[in-house]
Specification:
CATH class of the largest domain: Alpha Beta
Number of domains: 2
Radius of gyration: 21 Å
Distance between the termini: 22 Å
Strand order of the largest sheet: 2-1-3-12-11-4-5-10-8-9
Bound molecules: nicotinamide-adenine-dinucleotide
Number of helices: 12
Number of strands: 14
CATH topology of the largest domain: Isopropylmalate Dehydrogenase
CATH architecture of the largest domain: 3-Layer(aba) Sandwich
């Protein structure tokens, strides 16, 4: 029997964060009650909400909560009110701070197209049908952190911008291990994406991923150049199972893949470290619709499914949450962002309640 009690730090954040978080917590509490999982919740301020109260986006007490937790559940941060602030006070800095301090080196983005939402995709139905991709993006290395960096003045007086792409063998092998482990529990196909034909740093990436692959003979490993991958994601996305890639390439490819679904309010994410994790929807704080009870809570509810799968090692319960979401969509309920003629329009709280009821039925 694995661990059965968990500390969860809850950061609703800004904008729609509070509304969607309430619905996600209802789902998590229901599972915990029914499955006798003991959960300790501690709520903290982050982003603009924290800046307004404490003068910084990631105050010490919130960081402490995160560091003492088994997992963080986060809504979203940011909004026009804080856009003019100096860079270090911006709400989005809190996310970078958390990633760094919690050592979250693996970002997981599942991209699944629900049958009921096929026509929300900008691509043809026959291209997106059956998409079930897991993108594993390295999150703490690469050109975003490498030194030297900056804008420098040359002797001639002209400016020069510099960033440095760096990966150590250890950084590559730990993300490769994560990706192989995930592929092993799925269809056992791993694609590593690099630009080994022109970038030495990713030549090392390719070698190390292949070396790690020797311990995973049950998983089929392939390699692809990033430019080809960007093309294939549009041409034939159903070919992919698990994709592992660098921080920069993953940043771009995961947004491209997200758009295949056409519904930003449906996509969850997980960021994993050695023994810490953070779960959040991929969308932002949606200030344009905040406080109106119209935001889609399903991305955050699906982030709870990831929390069950990766922090609590409860894959069966994670699947039930995903099934409950699919069930509610099958019955025709839609929030405004995924609404189509002939469907039933519901608000944030109602979508949460419907999912709760569906899940309660599945748990009985
Ligand atoms: P956004 O994701 O907040 O919104 C983009 C569009 O999608 C908006 O029209 C919004 O209404 C819609 N949308 C987003 N989530 C939705 C949901 N759950 N249901 C229905 N519709 C939804 O991106 P943006 O407008 O570029 O950014 C707004 C703020 O969020 C900015 O301050 C930005 O920096 C911040 N942001 C935060 C995160 C994060 O917290 N992880 C991520 C991205 C952006």
């Amino acid at each position: 029997m694995g661990k059965n009690s968990f500390n969860i730090a809850v950061f609703p954040g800004d904008g729609v964060g509070t509304e969607i978080m309430q619905e996600a917590l209802k789902i998590l509490r229901l599972i915990a009650d029914k499955k006798k999982i003991s959960l300790e919740f501690s709520e903290g301020y982050i982003g603009g909400a924290a800046y307004d109260r404490f003068g910084e986006p990631l105050p010490e007490q919130s960081l402490d909560l995160a560091m003492q937790s088994d997992a963080v559940l986060l809504g979203a941060v940011g909004g026009p009110r804080w856009e003019a602030l100096e860079y270090k006070f911006r709400p989005e800095r809190a996310l970078l701070g958390l990633r760094e301090k919690m050592g979250l080196y693996a970002n997981l983005r599942p991209v699944v197209v629900f049958e009921e939402l096929l026509d929300a995709s900008p691509l043809k139905e026959e291209v997106v049908r059956g998409i079930d991709i897991m993108i594993v993006r390295e999150l703490t290395g690469d050109i975003y952190f490498g030194q030297p960096r900056g804008v420098f003045k040359e002797k001639s007086g002209r400016r020069k911008g510099v960033n440095t792409m760096v990966y150590t063998e250890e950084e590559i092998s730990r993300i490769a291990v994560r990706a192989f482990e995930i592929a092993r529990k799925r269809k056992k196909n791993l694609l590593s994406v690099d630009k080994a034909n022109v970038l030495e740093c990713t030549e090392l990436w390719r070698s190390v991923v292949s070396e790690v692959g020797r311990d995973y003979s049950d998983v089929t490993l392939k390699h692809m150049y990033v430019d080809n991958c960007a093309m294939q994601l549009i041409r034939n996305p159903a070919q992919f199972d698990v994709i592992v890639t660098t921080n920069l390439f993953g940043d771009i490819l995961s947004d491209e893949a997200a758009m295949l679904t056409g519904s930003i309010g449906m996509l969850p994410s997980a960021s994993l470290g050695k023994d810490k994790a953070l779960y959040e929807p991929i969308h932002g704080s949606a200030p344009d619709i905040a406080g109106k009870n119209i935001a889609n809570p399903l991305a955050t509810i699906l982030s709870v499914a990831l929390l069950l799968r990766y922090t609590m090692a409860r894959p069966a319960e994670a699947e039930l949450v995903e099934k409950a979401v699919a069930g509610v969509l099958q019955e025709g309920y839609r929030t405004q962002d995924i609404f189509q003629e002939g469907k039933k329009l519901v608000g944030t709280a109602e979508m949460g309640d419907l999912t709760w009821k569906k899940l309660a039925g599945l748990l009985n």
